[in-house]
Amino acid sequence: MNTSMQLQTSGNSSAVAQQPFRGLSLSMQRQARREMEQVQARAVVARLHEDARAMLTHTALEHVGALTALEQHLITVAPLGEARYREIVDNYTLGAAGAIRRWS
Description:
The protein has 104 residues and is mainly α. 77% of the residues lie in helices and 0% in strands. The chain has three helices and no strands. The chain is rod-shaped and about 80 Å long. The N terminus is likely disordered.
């Protein structure tokens, strides 16, 4: 679904769109339409926010996985650095988790 998508009523949109406004004055209809547009705009922004949070989480998981694999490799190549490697990767992981938590 692309972000420029607009929320619309399904089915016979012109008849359905007019039905809730029957009996309302023109000013009330305008006000109702404005409020509906605001709800739709909030829904679009909420979706963008959620997509961005998922992208951030996905990237963090990829990075943690790659760093963990590198950490494991370095432990076999230079075992004396094991504690340092673990601390570096653990700190990155904590920082990434914190960034995801703050995004919420």
